[in-house]
Amino acid sequence: MRLSKLPIATLRETPAEAEIVSHRLMLRSGMVRRLASGLFTWMPMGWRVARIVERVTREEMERIGAHELLMPAVHPAELWRESGRWQDYGDLLLKMRDRGEREYCFGPTHEEVVTDIARRELKSYRQLPVSFFQVQTKFRDEIRPRFGVMRSREFLMKDAYSFHLGEESLREVYGHYREAYKRVFERLGLKYRVVQADSGEIGGSRSQEFHVLADSGEDLIAWCDGDDFAANLELAPALPPEGERAAPGAAMSEAHTPGMRTIRQVAAHLDRPAEDCLKTLLVKAEGGGVAALVLCGQHEVNELKATALPEVAKPLQLANAQEVAQAASCPPGFLGPVGLRVKTYVDHAAAHRANFVCGANRRDKHLVDVNWGRDLPEPETADLRNAVEGDLSPGGGGTLEIARGIEVGHIFQLGDKYSRCMNAAVLDENGAERHMQMGCYGLGVTRTVAAAIEQNHDERGIIWPEAMAPFSVVLVALNAARDENVRATAEQLHDSLRSQGVEVLFDDRDASPGVKLADADLIGIPHRVVVSARGLVACFVRAGTSALTLPPILPEKGGGEWLQLCA
Ligand code: ATP
Ligand code: MG
Predict the structure, then answer these.
(1) Are 291 and 342 in contact (CB under 8 A)?
(2) Which of 204, 385, 415, 482 has the CB geometry, 3.0–4.6 Å to 299, for a possible disulfide?
(3) Is 157 in the pocket of ligand 1 (CB under 6 A)?
(4) Are 277 and 264 in contact (CB under 8 A)?
(5) H-helix or E-strand spanning residue 156
(6) What is the Cα–Cα distance from 492 to 284, expressed in whole angstroms?
(7) Torsion angles phi and psi, residue 515, rounded to 5
(8) CA gyration radius for the chain?
(9) Residues 37-45: what's their mean pLDDT?
(10) Ligand 1 test: best mutation among 155, 193, 196, most atoms within 8 Å of CB?
(11) From ligand 2's centre to the CA of 35, what distance in Å?
(12) Spatial CA neighbour of 111 closest among 138, 142, 129
């Protein structure tokens, strides 16, 4: 592609609306343009990359025997009423009416439509297992569309669905999808983790997410290299500490802690580490009233775990001032488990502390050297907190590491959630009707492009993994208008690279060398060939990418952080 013929301006300025690097770089390099909130046009440069992700994904779907089809983007309301999701999917679902006042939605996902196909087409266990996939535009009316195409309202997803007679077959095919997804992200050259995940409103029993690791990721994930454990932080168990609790020491006493409502203030005032200072949260209880959660000062309560307790109301909500006043005669900062007469759950780590500090349930007072089993009864323990770095791995192979990730794929074992309510059944070996077991597998094509940039960039621009680069080579002709030799050499190189089948972005614009080189940095193509009057051809190959065979023309030279390909 000749840049002189591509009417897209790269931007020097950082667009004000862009909050994260990938969004900034995609706008600046002309990959996408915003139409309205959560709606983007994929410009030629960006679309090339999205199509690479799509192609690699399609190849891996075909490799495991999934059949490609294309379902409608617009779905009749009746189907969504059958599954119950016309209501349950909530405000994410964009609903509309046609001229006959019939109701429709724009598909945010396709379980209903594919289950309808399956119940019409599949009659016998002999047709199973079978998988279908599509690459299609979804619409979700996200509350807060942001970060460009990372969380847009309209986006491209590869979604696949599998149908089975029994659970064993579902598990086996689910395994094939997991391996296929791994191959996709490996082939794209991305660093990723497969993590245990919550199934959300799609439902079903088992699911895993694929996360591209990046500091800007919205999700926290915990993993251990020693044992392959990896989970979304909200699901990662925090194991009880090992060993015996220390023995009680000095007798319990009361300390004056005027106005000190935070763990940090109390710890500093009493000269104790935060883990010695227990915090007590009053939360709304199921069916009215309040319950107390006690954790070590440095730990954070985990909503999913806390609300799984029978006494704790969902969603997790702190008690209001009136409820706190009813339970104890002090403000929240001075709450503690000693003498507190509400249902109390104590996190394993807090239950393992001896000689700890906690609120005294009196304004401006804390208790010091408190011990379970001595100053108050042995606690009822639970896992209440988010795991932290250095915690023991549930897999037993070492300690946990924690990093941020971007969810780019999600695979589920759905079971009969949709086949039952939509009555999708086949005849089994004995001629009896059985609801099919289903799996569903989503991969965010457009989000993967943004995630790749979050993971691979520097202050000058994008650094595409080789497999995702929109072009293999950027050919930059410097001052070609002034130098016929440069122009002719560049044209010749362009022709011969193209005849070798190399995808070349040819910067033949009448622009300054500074602009051209800055744009090449911004667009981030792994191989760069610069033609200039001085030295004529210099070829640069980014470290770690494959070699490029140039037609033999003239001596080359190179430098900087780019490796010189030819001596
Ligand atoms: P999230 O938790 O980020 O909202 P999700 O769990 O609702 O996503 P899934 O239903 O699992 O998403 O969809 C499958 C894939 O589609 C996701 O892994 C993600 O890559 C992509 N995806 C989902 N929502 C969006 C969005 N708003 N913009 C771009 N891609 C998205
Ligand atoms: Mg998901």
Answers:
(1) yes
(2) 385
(3) yes
(4) no
(5) strand 154-164
(6) 74
(7) -65, -45
(8) 30
(9) 96
(10) 155
(11) 25
(12) 138
To which residue do tokens 């490029």 refer?
548
552: preceding bond cis by omega (within 30 degrees):
no
Tally Cβ neighbours within 10 Å of residue 8: 14
Reading the block at residue 205, the tokens are: 């029993």
Tell me, using a 6 A CB cutoff, whether residue 164 lines ligand 1.
no
Share of the chain above pLDDT 70, in %: 93
Three-class secondary structure of residue 44 per DSSP: helix
The string of pLDDT tens digits covering residues 390-433 is 999 998 999 999 999 999 999 999 999 999 999 999 999 999 99
Mean pLDDT of the chain: 91
Q: What is the pLDDT of residues 296-336, one digit of tens each?
A: 999 999 999 999 999 999 999 999 988 998 888 888 899 99
User: 40 Cβ partners below 8 Å, 6+ apart?
Assistant: 32, 33, 34, 148, 149, 152, 154
Q: How many helices (H) and strands (E) does the chain have?
A: 14, 30
Site to probe by mutation for ligand 1, drawn from 22, 447, 448, 453 as the one with most ligand atoms within 8 Å of Cβ, is: 447
Q: Name the closest-CA residue to atom 13, ligand 1.
A: 442
Ligand 1 atom 28 nearest Cα:
151
445: how many CB neighbours lie within 10 A of its CB?
Answer: 24
Ligand 1 centroid distance, CA of 444 (Å): 6
CA distances from 421 to 116, 133, 330 (A): 11, 22, 51
Strands (E), 200-257: 206-213, 219-223, 230-232, 253-256
Task: Measure the N-to-C terminal CA separation of the chain; round to a whole number of Å.
Answer: 28
CA-proximal residue: ligand 1, atom 21 (nearest) = 444
Three-class DSSP category at 61: helix
Residue keyed to tokens 């191959």: 183
Q: Which of 147, 193, 407, 413 to mutate to test the pocket of ligand 1 (most atoms within 8 A of CB)?
A: 407
**Residue written as tokens 């000749």?**
2
pTM over 0.70: yes
- Cβ burial of 241 (10 Å; 0-12, 13-18, 19+) is middle
